[in-house]
Amino acid sequence: MARYNNRMTFDEYQKIAITTDIFGGKMNSVTDPAFLEKAFGLSGEAGEVSEKLKKIIRDKNGVLNEDDRAEIIKEFGDVLWYISALSHYLGVSLDKVAAQNLEKVLSRKARGQTTGSGDNR
Description:
Elements: H1 10-17, H2 33-60, H3 66-89, H4 94-110
Helix pairs in contact: 1-3, 2-3
């Protein structure tokens, strides 16, 4: 298995990760099984993160150990893969997604709008 350094960009990750897509990184529409599989996969993997955290709260009084951290990080990787693939399918680079998100959250912070709800606060 190839190993990658910690200095990989999101775009580099996205370019390599999509090569593992069973649909070849191609879709015709958002109703295409290739796209839907990614959307449902993202939801499922995010649910797995929540499930692991729930069990740590329920069974371990919220105390994480290194094995718990390692398992959660694996799930974060799966979430990242699906976000990367969906971004690819939508024709947007993962670097751009990350940059736009930082711009949004930094703007909220600067305006004192980090609480509340809605994307356009």
